[in-house]
Specification:
alpha/beta; six-stranded mixed β-sheet; 4 helices; disordered C terminus; 27% helix
Length: 148
Amino acid sequence: MEFLVYSGTGNSLRVARWTAAAVREASLPAEISPLLSGSDRRDDPATRLTLVFPTHGFTAPASVLKAVGRLLRGRGRVAFVVATRGATRIAGRMLPGYEGSAALLVALILLAKGYRVGGIAGVDMPSNRTALAYLLVGRHVLSGLYFA
Protein backbone atom coordinates (compact mmCIF):
# COMPACT_ATOMS: atom_id res chain seq x y z
CA MET A 1 0.00 0.00 0.00
CA GLU A 2 1.27 3.44 -0.89
CA PHE A 3 0.46 6.29 1.52
CA LEU A 4 0.64 9.84 0.19
CA VAL A 5 0.57 12.29 3.07
CA TYR A 6 0.17 16.03 3.45
CA SER A 7 0.73 17.10 7.05
CA GLY A 8 1.35 20.47 8.62
CA THR A 9 1.22 19.81 12.36
CA GLY A 10 2.04 16.10 12.21
CA ASN A 11 -1.44 14.75 12.89
CA SER A 12 -1.94 13.38 9.37
CA LEU A 13 1.56 11.90 9.31
CA ARG A 14 0.87 10.20 12.63
CA VAL A 15 -2.35 8.64 11.27
CA ALA A 16 -0.48 7.44 8.16
CA ARG A 17 2.26 5.88 10.31
CA TRP A 18 -0.29 4.10 12.52
CA THR A 19 -2.11 2.74 9.49
CA ALA A 20 1.09 1.73 7.69
CA ALA A 21 2.25 -0.13 10.82
CA ALA A 22 -1.03 -2.07 10.88
CA VAL A 23 -0.61 -2.93 7.19
CA ARG A 24 2.96 -4.15 7.81
CA GLU A 25 1.77 -6.26 10.77
CA ALA A 26 -0.46 -8.03 8.26
CA SER A 27 2.74 -8.84 6.30
CA LEU A 28 1.91 -6.43 3.50
CA PRO A 29 4.22 -3.73 2.14
CA ALA A 30 3.53 -0.12 3.08
CA GLU A 31 5.39 2.99 1.95
CA ILE A 32 4.81 6.59 3.09
CA SER A 33 5.64 9.50 0.80
CA PRO A 34 4.82 13.22 0.79
CA LEU A 35 1.78 14.02 -1.36
CA LEU A 36 3.27 17.23 -2.73
CA SER A 37 6.55 15.67 -3.91
CA GLY A 38 5.37 14.55 -7.32
CA SER A 39 3.19 11.87 -5.83
CA ASP A 40 2.30 8.32 -6.81
CA ARG A 41 5.46 6.94 -8.33
CA ARG A 42 4.02 3.47 -8.61
CA ASP A 43 1.94 2.99 -11.68
CA ASP A 44 0.87 -0.47 -10.53
CA PRO A 45 -2.90 -1.00 -10.37
CA ALA A 46 -2.35 -3.75 -7.78
CA THR A 47 -0.80 -1.27 -5.31
CA ARG A 48 -3.50 0.41 -3.29
CA LEU A 49 -3.23 4.11 -2.64
CA THR A 50 -4.18 5.92 0.57
CA LEU A 51 -4.27 9.72 0.73
CA VAL A 52 -4.04 11.26 4.22
CA PHE A 53 -4.39 15.01 4.74
CA PRO A 54 -5.79 17.54 7.23
CA THR A 55 -9.03 19.43 6.96
CA HIS A 56 -8.69 23.22 6.57
CA GLY A 57 -11.81 25.36 6.71
CA PHE A 58 -14.08 22.30 6.47
CA THR A 59 -12.55 21.12 3.20
CA ALA A 60 -9.27 19.87 1.75
CA PRO A 61 -6.44 22.40 1.42
CA ALA A 62 -6.01 23.86 -2.08
CA SER A 63 -2.51 22.37 -2.36
CA VAL A 64 -3.97 18.89 -1.70
CA LEU A 65 -6.63 19.34 -4.37
CA LYS A 66 -3.98 20.45 -6.89
CA ALA A 67 -1.71 17.50 -6.01
CA VAL A 68 -4.58 15.01 -6.35
CA GLY A 69 -5.38 16.53 -9.73
CA ARG A 70 -1.77 15.84 -10.81
CA LEU A 71 -1.82 12.16 -9.81
CA LEU A 72 -1.39 9.59 -12.55
CA ARG A 73 -4.58 8.15 -14.04
CA GLY A 74 -6.03 5.49 -11.77
CA ARG A 75 -6.90 2.82 -14.36
CA GLY A 76 -9.02 1.02 -11.76
CA ARG A 77 -6.48 1.31 -8.93
CA VAL A 78 -8.11 1.20 -5.49
CA ALA A 79 -7.70 4.36 -3.43
CA PHE A 80 -8.67 5.29 0.12
CA VAL A 81 -9.14 8.82 1.42
CA VAL A 82 -8.50 9.84 5.04
CA ALA A 83 -9.10 13.40 6.27
CA THR A 84 -7.83 14.26 9.74
CA ARG A 85 -9.86 16.77 11.71
CA GLY A 86 -9.41 18.63 14.97
CA ALA A 87 -11.45 17.34 17.89
CA THR A 88 -11.53 18.84 21.34
CA ARG A 89 -12.95 18.35 24.78
CA ILE A 90 -15.03 21.13 26.29
CA ALA A 91 -16.79 20.86 29.64
CA GLY A 92 -15.90 17.18 29.86
CA ARG A 93 -17.47 16.29 26.51
CA MET A 94 -15.53 15.21 23.44
CA LEU A 95 -16.58 17.24 20.42
CA PRO A 96 -15.67 15.56 17.12
CA GLY A 97 -13.98 17.49 14.38
CA TYR A 98 -15.84 18.38 11.20
CA GLU A 99 -14.34 17.53 7.83
CA GLY A 100 -17.07 19.06 5.70
CA SER A 101 -16.42 18.26 2.06
CA ALA A 102 -12.73 17.36 2.47
CA ALA A 103 -12.74 13.58 1.97
CA LEU A 104 -15.69 13.56 -0.42
CA LEU A 105 -14.17 16.19 -2.71
CA VAL A 106 -10.87 14.31 -2.97
CA ALA A 107 -12.76 11.03 -3.56
CA LEU A 108 -14.70 12.64 -6.42
CA ILE A 109 -11.47 13.84 -8.06
CA LEU A 110 -10.04 10.33 -7.75
CA LEU A 111 -13.16 8.83 -9.32
CA ALA A 112 -12.88 11.28 -12.22
CA LYS A 113 -9.26 10.19 -12.70
CA GLY A 114 -10.23 6.52 -12.97
CA TYR A 115 -9.59 5.30 -9.41
CA ARG A 116 -11.93 2.98 -7.56
CA VAL A 117 -12.54 4.55 -4.16
CA GLY A 118 -12.41 1.79 -1.56
CA GLY A 119 -13.45 4.04 1.30
CA ILE A 120 -13.32 7.47 2.88
CA ALA A 121 -12.86 8.29 6.54
CA GLY A 122 -12.42 11.16 8.94
CA VAL A 123 -10.07 10.69 11.89
CA ASP A 124 -10.31 12.89 14.97
CA MET A 125 -7.00 14.16 16.28
CA PRO A 126 -6.21 16.81 18.90
CA SER A 127 -7.14 20.29 17.77
CA ASN A 128 -4.30 22.62 16.84
CA ARG A 129 -6.37 25.81 16.98
CA THR A 130 -5.17 26.76 20.46
CA ALA A 131 -4.03 30.23 19.42
CA LEU A 132 -7.44 31.06 17.97
CA ALA A 133 -9.97 29.67 20.42
CA TYR A 134 -10.12 30.67 24.08
CA LEU A 135 -11.68 27.38 25.26
CA LEU A 136 -8.97 25.33 23.58
CA VAL A 137 -6.21 26.16 26.03
CA GLY A 138 -4.69 24.54 29.07
CA ARG A 139 -6.40 21.50 30.45
CA HIS A 140 -8.93 21.34 27.58
CA VAL A 141 -6.19 20.73 25.02
CA LEU A 142 -4.24 18.38 27.27
CA SER A 143 -7.35 16.29 27.89
CA GLY A 144 -7.68 15.76 24.15
CA LEU A 145 -4.19 14.28 23.84
CA TYR A 146 -5.23 10.92 25.24
CA PHE A 147 -6.31 9.66 21.83
CA ALA A 148 -3.19 10.79 20.01
